[in-house]
Specification:
With 332 residues, this protein is an alpha+beta fold. The chain has one domain: Tachylectin-2, Chain A (5 Propeller), CATH 2.115.10.20. The chain has two helices and 19 strands. The protein has a four-stranded antiparallel beta sheet with strand order 3-2-1-19. Strands 4-5-6-7 form a four-stranded antiparallel beta sheet, with no helix packed on it. A four-stranded antiparallel beta sheet has the order 8-9-10-11, with no helix packed on it. Strand 4 and strand 5 form a beta hairpin. The termini are far apart. The N terminus is likely disordered.
């Protein structure tokens, strides 16, 4: 009896365990299916927003929208959504907007051609913004000439935001000193933050021996891809390239060959959907915008500028996805 009871007990336990595993696996598959449906719905419900500036950035933030990434139209007849108040010159150039892990939109921008800080503000909806801050990221460097084109990238691993920009400090980097425009010989710098209140000291992010500006970094699975402008004037480069690292804040090597054509380009921003990439950039000497596309995760690039429609006067900015509900509030 004891033996039989013991065997029956083990059989019962085994049956219950197997049943529990089956139920658990069904829940996992249902969860995976739900996530897949949500992702598909998110992709279908997304509207892309392009944050940008006009002229010299004196009237602040402008927004354009697109459903396909090719045809962009200005929102609300091109009005400014935020007037700049940060910095001495009170400009809002190169506005970079991302959606943070906290659900807020975080924006940084260039406040001046020659100041040592960058602008920052946050918003729940791109309509109502926090008080603007002037973050003095290079105030500790007496010789620093500028802080240009700041951007933000979120690092999910460390749950921190990295803010990065281009600065010239005359004499700091001999390589490239004679190849830039006038006195400029930029390198990329960065700080990190978890709350946009406390920041780490500024450090060099990228120095590969040439004049570089306008970086934007995109997480891509287990790597980070930095698109940048080679600002070398002699011999002329003025093109877009990219570098790759498995760490957000370091390890970016020599850049790729130019991925843009025989024209001067700057201000890259990226729309990434799976293995498909669109890189937008300002053909600033031609007064127009351009774009290139890759469908093999950046191995080859095709110019699609002739398929692109952009609002008149659009200058350097970034692309962020929002919901249709958020979009409807922007255009009301």
């Amino acid at each position: 009896m004891k033996t039989g009871s013991s065997l029956n007990g083990k059989t019962g336990i085994l049956y219950r365990s197997t049943k529990t595993v089956i139920v658990f696996m069904k829940k996992i598959w249902m969860f995976i299916l739900l996530i897949s449906v949500m992702k598909a719905a998110t992709a279908q419900d997304s509207i892309y927003i392009f944050s940008y500036f006009k002229d010299n950035g004196q009237d602040g933030l402008h927004l354009a929208y697109s459903e396909d990434g090719y045809t962009w139209k200005e929102l609300d007849n091109g009005r400014s959504y935020l007037q700049p108040t940060a910095g001495k010159d009170k400009l809002m150039r190169d506005p970079c907007v991302i959606r943070g892990a906290d659900g807020l939109f975080h924006m940084v921008w260039t406040v001046s051609w020659n100041e040592k800080g960058i602008g920052y503000a946050s918003s729940p909806d791109l309509l109502h913004w926090s008080a603007q801050q002037d973050i003095p990221v290079m105030e500790h460097e007496p010789g620093a000439l500028n802080c240009w084109a700041p951007e933000i990238t979120y690092d999910a691993r460390s749950k921190t935001y990295m803010i990065y920009w281009a600065t010239t400090i005359p004499g700091r980097f001999p390589a490239g000193d004679t190849s830039g425009d006038d006195k400029y010989n930029h390198r990329l710098y960065y700080v990190t933050t978890k709350n946009f209140k406390q920041f780490t000291p500024a450090r060099v992010l990228y120095d590969q021996g040439f004049n570089v500006i306008d970086a934007t970094i995109i997480p891509d699975n287990n790597r980070y891809v930095m698109f940048l402008k080679d600002e070398t004037r002699k011999p002329p480069q003025k093109n877009i390239r990219f570098a790759v690292s498995n760490k957000l804040t370091r390890g970016y090597g020599k850049p790729s060959a130019p991925i843009t054509g025989q024209y001067w380009a700057e201000g890259p921003t990226v729309l990434k959907r799976g293995k498909k990439w669109i890189v937008y950039f300002d053909k600033y000497t031609q007064g127009s915008y351009g774009a290139i596309k890759s469908e093999d995760n950046g191995k080859t690039w095709t110019d699609i500028s002739d398929k692109l429609t952009m609002p008149k006067g659009l200058r350097h900015g970034t692309v962020v996805a929002i919901t249709r509900e958020e979009y409807s509030k922007l255009k009301d």
